[in-house]
Amino acid sequence: MKALLIVDxxxxxxxxxxxxxxxxxxxxxxxxxxxxxxxxIVASKDWHPEASVHFAKWPVHCLHETTGAxxxxxLHTSKIDEVFLKGTGNRDDGYxxxxxxxxxxxxxxxxxxxxxxxxxxxxxxxxxxxxxxDARKAGFQTFVVEDAIKPVEQHLGDAQQAIQQMKTExxxxxxxxxx
Length: 179
Description:
alpha/beta; Rossmann fold; 6 strands
């Protein structure tokens, strides 16, 4: 079975948010259209506490129970089967969806007999990369939907370098029209 993982499509990572990926909101229609092609859809959320050491590196973002941590309002959340919360501890960066603390993503996918995982969302060089690498390490055939991701691009070239690293590690890139 194949599943779709939507990574951190939250208000704070979209234009107007605390740590926006430029044009991050433009992938929402692509992701919404992808949802009809999958039997199982899961999503991750950054869910940081106020005292997180994560904020020594980043602006304060995605504080649990805030509007910034909510999914983008245009995302069809009713189609999401389960949400995995990450970055929930004071010392937890939580880049990968596989680091979720409310549920174990690897176990969840395995229980649902998932063999192929398609990943989309925000941000390419951090949470997408970390989630894709962990999916591959866990043994899933891993695809990143290239027209359904956006980088935060703190440093010019980081996103392209992350994509190249993922490809080198056997993570496949695919366009939404090819699924």
